[in-house]
UniProtKB/TrEMBL annotation:
It is found in: Cytoplasm. It comes from Robinsoniella peoriensis. GO terms for biological process: protein refolding. Under oxidizing conditions two disulfide bonds are formed involving the reactive cysteines. Under reducing conditions zinc is bound to the reactive cysteines and the protein is inactive. This is 33 kDa chaperonin. The keyword Cytoplasm applies.
Length: 292
């Protein structure tokens, strides 16, 4: 099953919902960054959330960035997504290893640590929207639930999960976001809360063969759920040698000249997809001519 996101409404548009299956994109991130199981789980959860939240944006060129800055050994997570659900991301220390938590699960909260969640939406305006909240559990899903409630004033329920194989590849990954509109009836809210309290983990549903549509039917079937859209999603980095060259130009003539004076080629790494770009001394001389 290729990765995709479904968007839906329920209860006569009082509820909007998103559900995703993201195994392939999380596995791609794992292989690109060679992440440990706990780092894969943490990054995979935020990538899945970023992909779904990306589809909430309207503009073709809108960019969403989710950043976790915290004191745990993973040393932070950064994810960016566009409105077409192309997503990319990385963790500060991909090889972090931790013992399981008290429930015998991957200790994502321990890896992430105490800190902040920052949501940046660049919608082509003079200044991007920036929302910031304190991490509540560092499990990521609950932290995003808190972010939506406090920064965007949208009561939400977020579920995210990554299930690993014994060989440390990704077996299942996915998530859902369910949001209440301001005019939602109290009876609908109460019934939805009861339904959500009965839910097992996202990964257990995916592992049982449930599709995103089936997950939303389980959660919202009693409320007349209607699927409105299906969007493919993938791990996709838009870096190119030309874009990296522009980044080198931006550092200024003095620093570029120092690189040339070293008489050695330089290598520039893209954090998001771990691709290395090499520039020869001759190429650096050409870049110097273009810089101001």
């Amino acid at each position: 099953m290729a990765d995709y996101i479904v968007r839906a409404t329920a209860a006569d548009n009082q509820i909007r919902a998103f559900a995703a299956t993201t195994r392939d994109l999380v596995e791609k991130a794992r292989s690109v960054h060679n992440t440990s199981p706990v780092a894969t789980a943490a990054l995979g959860r935020l990538l899945t959330a970023g992909a779904m939240m990306g589809t909430m944006m309207k503009g073709e060129k809108d960019i969403l960035t989710l950043q976790i800055k915290a004191g745990g050994p993973i040393n932070g997570i950064t994810v960016t997504a566009d409105s077409k659900a192309n997503v990319k991301g990385y963790v500060g220390k991909p090889d972090v290893m931790l013992p399981p938590n008290a429930k015998g699960k991957l200790d994502v909260a321990g890896a992430v640590g105490v800190g902040l969640l920052q949501v940046i939406k660049d919608m082509g305006l003079k200044e991007p929207y920036v929302g910031q909240t304190v991490l509540q559990t560092s499990e990521i899903a609950e932290d995003l639930t808190y972010y939506f409630a406090t920064s965007e004033q949208v009561p939400s329920s977020v579920g995210l999960g990554v299930l690993m194989e014994h060989d440390n590849t990704v077996k299942q990954a996915g998530g859902f976001i369910i949001q209440l509109m301001p005019f939602t009836d109290d009876a609908v809210i109460d019934a939805l809360e009861k339904k959500l309290s009965e839910v097992t983990s996202v990964t257990s549903m995916l592992d049982a063969g449930d599709t995103p549509e089936m997950i939303l039917d389980k959660l919202l079937g009693d409320f007349g759920v209607q699927i409105t859209d299906k969007v493919p999603t993938s791990f996709c980095c838009n870096c190119t040698k030309h874009r990296v060259e522009k980044a080198i130009i931006s550092i200024g003539k003095k620093d570029i000249q120092e690189m040339i004076d070293d008489e050695k080629p330089i290598e520039v790494n893209c954090h998001f997809c771990n691709t290395n770009y090499e520039f020869s001394v001759e190429e650096l001389k050409q870049i110097l001519k273009k810089s101001k």
